[in-house]
Every structure is written in C-alpha cells, then in structure tokens.
Amino acid sequence: MRCRRVISASRSCVKGWTNWAECWRSRRHPAEGAGSRRSGFRMTTATAIRVMLVDDHLVVRRGIEHVLADDPGFEIVAELGEGQAAVAAYRASRPDVVLLDVRMPGMSGIDTARALLAEDPDARIVALSSFTTDDLIDAMMGAGVRGYLPKEVSELALKEALRRVARGEGLARPAGSEAAARGADTGDLAQVLGAQQLKVLALMVKGLTNPEIAALLSITRPTARYHVSAILKKLDVSNRAEAVALAVRSGLVRDEDGF
C-alpha cells in the first residue's frame, strides 16, 4: 500500500496530523508483499531544496517528512525535536530553508530563530504553528523569519512556500490571522495592532526614534523597525507622522500613556 493513498482524501488540505502519522506508520509497517520504502530513503535532484525541520511533536515531523518524501525537489537534511540543538544542526547540514515550530518547551521558536540568524544572518526560516495570533506572528516576523504558516496548510501551499523562501522571497501574512481576517480598515484599531504594537505606537506619538523604542521595550532594533513598518501597513498610512496623527485623532493613544 503506497503511503499517498492513506491521505489521498486530504491531499489538497492536510488538516489532520493524525492522518500523517497513520501514513508514517503504514510506511514503517507495510502490509506483507507491499513495495513501500522506508521513510527517509528516496532519490533527489541535484537542485533539491534542503530542508531542516524543528518541531517538538514527532507526529508533525513525520507528517511533513511524508509530504516531502516523494517529491524529488526536496530533501530533509536534519530534523530536531527541540531548539537547543538547532544551531549545531544548522551548521552541520547548511539547509536552504528551516521549517520551525513556534511554541516548543525549553528554547522557543522565537529564541531559536534569533540564534539561527545570529549564526547565519542569511538563514531562511519559515515559522509553522497551530496558533496564528497577531502577537505570535509579529514576534516571529520581528525575529527575522521569512514567513509564518498555519499547520493546517495544504501540501501544495507548504511546498510552494518552501520554494519561494528558498528563492529568497518572503511570504504573505497568514489569511487566517487576526489582522488579515479583520482587515486594516476595521474601526477596532486596537485589536488590529495588538498589545506590543500599541506600545510602539504610543512611543511613536511621544516622538521616540526606533533605537529609543527598542531600548525602552527591551527589543532589538530590527524588531522595532519591523513593528513600525507593520503599524504603518495596518493603519494604511504612508509615514510615521500620519500614523501618529491617526492614533491621536482616533483616541487610540493618549498623551499620558507611558511604558
């Protein structure tokens, strides 16, 4: 029994990680006489995209491994269940793309992303999570990842995302995220921005620069720059002055707000 048949019903949108696990088990324990390969053994092309997986759930890693296993355009060069060993594994395998879980015990996905980018500023990282809240997405994007995918992503969308990031491109914000669902034209601006970016906006109103905002909020300067850019985009304004004017006019930020 070929593994692809096990999840044929979910080929267009793999929402059940247990299906991937079932498929993986069928590969490890195939029916008698079946011609199934062991997971991880396959032919790849000379230009295959080298992928490193970091996720604390074995079923997730095996599911992704199955999705990529029969495609010669991808090669999984390392897989880890924790972030602590990610830098050493990255240094040894030099992947084209890192697929990184966000919430992991011990070293979080955010800290792991920062460590990988400290090792290699050109590291191409895609966050993968069951959670698509604005705060998590902003934190990961601020840490320097190239994109953020929900774990409900389809096989085709996952592969295309990996190809795009391997080419050096970035990914759009997840369609199911809070900000994307509400849209930047909503009247509920506070919910659109989220707690962290409201703090950044309040400091922008006070006239602080990006380095000053970073120091006051104990974040990096690139993270501060990311938040400012995200605020301008969400508020649909072209510069800081317009963002400040909108914040004051709408009552989104008060002069007495301070952090």
UniProtKB/TrEMBL annotation:
Gene Ontology molecular function terms on file: DNA binding
Positions bearing 4-aspartylphosphate: 101
SUPFAM superfamilies: C-terminal effector domain of the bipartite response regulators (SSF46894), CheY-like (SSF52172)
BP terms from Gene Ontology: phosphorelay signal transduction system; regulation of DNA-templated transcription
Entry-linked PANTHER family: TRANSCRIPTIONAL REGULATORY PROTEIN NARL-RELATED, TWO-COMPONENT RESPONSE REGULATOR
Positions of the Response regulatory domain: 50-166
Alphabetic keyword roster: DNA-binding, Phosphoprotein, Transcription, Transcription regulation
CDD domains: LuxR_C_like, REC_NarL-like
Protein name: DNA-binding response regulator
Domain HTH luxR-type: 186-251
